[in-house]
Amino acid sequence: MSTFRHKALSEFSSHKMERFCVETKPVSAFFGQNVFDLKKMRNYLPETAYDAVIQAIEKKTRIDRSVAAFVAEGMRTWAMERGVTHYTHWFHPLSETTAEKHEAFIKPYSNGCAIEQFMGDSLIQQEPDASSFPSGGLRNTFEARGYTAWDPSSPAFIMEQTLCIPTIFVSYTGDALDIKTPHLKSIRALDSAATDVARYFDPETESVNVIYGIEQEYFVVDLSLYRARPDLMLCDRTLQGHTAAKDQQLEDHYFGNIPSRVMAFMKDFETEAYKLGVYIKTRHNEVAPNQFEFAPYHEEANLAIDHNQMIMMVMRKLAKKHNLKVIFHEKPYDGINGSGKHCNWSLCTNKGVNVFSPGKTPQDNLQFLSFIACTLKAVYEHHFLIMSTVASLSNSYRLGGSEAPPAVLSMFMGSTLAELLDLIEKGSTQSKKDMEQARMEIVGMVPDIFPDNTDRNRTSPFAFTGNRFEFRAIGSSANCASSMLFLNTAVAQQLKNFKTLVDKELNSGLKLEDALMKVIRKFVKESSDIRFEGNGYSTQWQTEAAQRGLRGIKDVPASYKSLLESKTVKLMEETRVMNRRELEARFEVKNEMYVKKLQIEARVLGDLSINHFVPTAIRHENLLLENVRCLKEVFPQEEYELLVSTQLKAIRKTAGYVNDLRNLVHLLIEARKKANRLESLHKKAAAYAKDVLPLMDQIRHCADHLEMIVDDELWPLPKYRELLFLR
Q1: Contact 377/494 with Cβ under 8 angstroms?
Q2: In whole angstroms, what is the distance from residue 670 CA to residue 691 CA?
Q3: Most Cβ neighbours (<10 Å): which of 258, 339, 398, 625?
Q4: Could you tell me where the DSSP H helices lie in 213-300?
Q5: Is 207 found in the same domain as 80?
Q6: CA geometry: angle at 284 spanning 293 and 296, to 5°?
Q7: For the chain, how long is the longest CA-to-CA vector?
Q8: Are residues 573 and 599 in the same domain?
Q9: Terminal-residue alpha carbon distance, the chain
C-alpha cells in the first residue's frame, strides 16, 4: 500500500519546469487569434450578414436564418484555415460544467468523395441527445428532445482543432435546461429596468450593460501526488489528512514569489487565454500554500462567464502537460483557507458612465444614490435567496468559517458612504466628509499616496469597493451565472419599483430631484438592516444578524427551499427570467447533486478506511507487538515492563482507532442505506447532511490521528506537507 506514496514521491523528482506555449511576439500581436470576433467577421462575412450580427449584439434583434447561412460559411472558412476539422455547440448544463458534442465538417459526396460543409441550420440550432444531464424533471429520457441554440453575443472560438459555438440549451417546451438562458434573461431584465432609471439623468441613454470581473482562486498539486490520493481523484478534496506542522500560519505564501514550475504553467495558460481573447490582468500567490489566483479585466457579464469557463478548461488541459493538477474545489484541504470565485459587479451605460461611481460629491450624485438604494433594497429583500444560490456541498466546507464567505449575507459600504446613507435615512444629505482625495505623506522621497475614500472589508460577502460591488461568497468551482442571475433579477425588480414610485411622485407635482430623493430615502431606510461595517466572522454578528431578521445558511439542503418560496417565484416570473417549473427543476438538481457528491465522498472514505488505513495501522501494530515480544526475550521482567510501557500504550491507542474505524464505517454504510431508501431527493439530501456527514467527520478524526501514530514509511497516502509544499 505504501508503495503508492513512495512511487509518487519518486516520480515528483522527475517533473521539471518547462514552457509549452512559447510566443516571441508581443501579446497584442496574437491576442484573440482563436476567436471569431467582429474584426474577423468583417473579413469573412458579407456586409449584410455582418450588419445583422452587429444589430443582434447591440440591439438584441433576432438573426434571420438566411443570414445565418453566410455566418456559418464564414466561420467554417476561417476555422478550417486554422486546421479545424470539427464544430460543437458549447453550453452550460445545470451540472455547472460545460458540455460539447463534436460534429465533423466533412460530408459524403458523390463517387466516394467528401466535402467540408457547415450550414446555417447547424449553426443556429442542434438537437444533442444530452438527456443524461440533470434536468430536475424538465425532460425524461424517453422524451429526450432538447435544443441548443446559437448565442450571437458570445463569439465562437477554437479549442484543440474544434470550433466551439456558445449556445443556450432548452427543452422541447422551451424551459431552460442550462445556466446561460436564465442568465441572459436576467441581464436583459436588468438592462431594461436600469435604462429606464438612467434616463432620469440622461434621456439619451440607450442601454445599461451588466459588467463582471471574476477573480478565480485555485490550488495546484503535483500530478503524481494527486494520482496517489483516491480522494483527490474522485472527490477533488482530501477526505483525510492531518494538518501539517507548517501551513499558512506564517502568511509567507501570500503574494510571495511564484514557484518557477507554477509560473511556467501560468505563462502557458495566460498565452492561451490571450489567444482566446481573454484579458488576464493579475496573477499571484494566495494565502494557503500552493494556492493561487488570476483575475481578468472586467467585461460584459455574459462574455465574462463564458471566458471564465473557457479558462478553467484551458487550465485543466495545460496543467497535465506540466505534470500538475489544478484543483478548483472550494475546500480541498482541511484547516487552511479554501478557494472562492469573487465576482465584481457593476453597471455601465452605453455612454460609458458607471452608475456606481460616486464622484467627488456623492451626496449630490442622484444617479449614484438611486442605484445604490435599489441595490441595497434588492439584496435586503432577497438576501437569503441570493446566499442560498452559493450553497453547495463543496462550498459548505468553508461556508461560515473564518474565511469568506460568512453564512449571513450583509453589505459593507465603507465609512464614508455609510455615513452618507445614515444621513439620508435621517432626512439629510450634508455629509461631514469631503470626497476629495486625501494625501498620505509617508517618507520624503516616496511619492504621495492617494487613498480611496473608504477601506475594504474582507469579511463582508457583498462589499462596495469604490465603483462596484464585490460578491465574495461564490465557490471557486461554481459557474458564477448560477448566483449572479438572481442578483441581477432582484436589482431589476427594485429598479422597476423605484421608477414606479418616482413617476408617481412626479405625477403628484414634485420636482424630479425631490421625487428621487424621497424614494431613495425610503429604500435606504427600509434596507438599513442589510448594512454592516464590522467583522462578518464574529459570533456577535451572528447574534445581531438574527435580531435584524437576516437569515443565514445553517443547513445547505434546507436553504434550497428558498427557490420555491412564493417571494422567489413571484420575482422570477414577474421579470420573466424563470418560471415555476424551472425553479422547481433547479431545486431538484441542487438536492440531487448534493446527494450524489456526498454519496461518492462517503463511499471513497469508507474504502480508504477499510482498505488503506486499517491494514496500515494493523501492520504498524504488528511491528510494535513483535518488538514487544523481542524485548521480553532480552530484558529482565522489571526492566522489560519499564521499556514497553509506552509501546503498549501506542498499541492500545492504535487498536482503539482501528476498532473505531471499523465500527464507524459500518454505521456510515447503514446511514447511507437508510437515506437512500427515501424517495424525496430533498429528504434524502437532508438525511445525508444530518446523519452521514457527522459520521464522516468522526472517521476522519480517527484516520488523522492514526496518521500521526503510524510509521511514516508505512502510511499509504501523500501527506499534507507533501501535497502543499512539493512544487
Answers
A1: yes
A2: 10
A3: 339
A4: 223-227, 230-235, 260-275
A5: no
A6: 55
A7: 106
A8: no
A9: 24
Instruction: Give CA–CA dist 599/267, Å, rounded.
Output: 37
Counting the structural domains of the chain, the total is 3
For residue 616, what is its C-alpha cell? 496500515
119 with 172, same domain?
Answer: yes
Element (H, E) at 441: none
Residues for the chain: how many in total?
Answer: 727
pLDDT tens readout for residues 636-673: 998 888 888 988 999 999 999 999 999 999 999 999 99
Question: Nearest CA to 65 among 157, 149, 185, 146?
Answer: 149
Q: Which amino acid is at 197?
A: V
Q: How far apart are CA 207 and CA 256, in angstroms?
A: 42
Q: Which of these three, 160, 178, 196, is where a domain ends?
A: 178
Q: Is pTM beyond 0.90 here?
A: yes
**How confident is the model at residue 464, as a pLDDT?**
95
Cα separation of 565 and 247, whole Å? Answer: 43
Helix and strand numbers (H, E) in the chain are 26, 17
Residue 95 is given by DSSP the state T
Same domain membership, residue 523 and residue 620? no
What's the rounded Cα separation, in Å, for the pair 52 and 568?
36
- C-alpha–C-alpha distance, residues 103 and 122, integer Å: 10
CB atoms within 10 A of CB 400: 17
Three-state DSSP at 474 gives coil
Residues 542 and 622 both lie in one domain: no
For residue 148, pLDDT over 90 is answered with yes
Residue 584 lies in a domain: no
Asked whether residue 315 falls in the same domain as residue 412, the answer is: yes
Answer whether residue 655 is part of any domain: yes
CATH code at position 38: 3.10.20.70
Mean pLDDT score across all residues of the chain? 91
**Could you tell me if residue 686 is inside a domain?**
yes
Phi, psi of 469 (to 5 degrees): -110, 145
| 522 plus 628 within the same structural domain | no
Cell numbers for 229: 490520493
Q: What share of the chain is helix, strand, coil (3-state, %, to 5)?
A: 50, 15, 35
In a domain, 673, yes or no: yes
Do 342 and 485 lie in one domain? The reply is yes
Read off the pLDDT of residues 705-724 as tens digits, 9 standing for 90 and up: 999 999 999 999 999 999 99
- The grid coordinates listed for 474 are 461564490
Reported as a single tens digit per residue, the pLDDT across 70-97 is: 999 999 999 999 999 999 999 999 988 8
Measured CA to CA in angstroms, residue 273 lies from 21, 76, 341 at distances of 11, 22, 18
Query: Where are the alpha helices (H) located in 508-565, listed in sequence order?
Result: 512-526, 539-547, 556-559
What distance in Å separates the CA atoms of residue 610 and residue 658, rounded to the nearest whole number?
Answer: 9
How far is C-alpha 102 from the geometric centre of its chain's CA atoms? Answer: 26
HEC string of 361-421? CHHHCHHHHHHHHHHHHHHHHCHHHHHHCCCCHHHHCCCCCCCCCCCECCEECCHHHHHHH
CA distance linking residue 456 with residue 472, whole number of Å: 12
Task: Please give the residue range of the domain that contains residue 437.
Answer: 187-239+250-578
> Residues 344-386: pLDDT tens digits?
999 999 999 999 999 888 889 999 999 999 999 999 999 999 9
CA-based torsion, 615, 620, 622, 625: positive or negative: negative
Q: On the CB side of 199, how many CA atoms lie within 13 Å of its CA? A: 16
CATH number of the domain residue 442 falls in: 3.30.590.10
Are 235 and 228 within 8 A, CB to CB? no
The span from the CA of 431 to the CA of 363, in Å, is: 7
Cα 45 to Cα 52: distance, rounded to the nearest angstrom: 10
| Single-letter code of the amino acid located at 466 | G
- CATH at residue 597: 1.20.120.1560
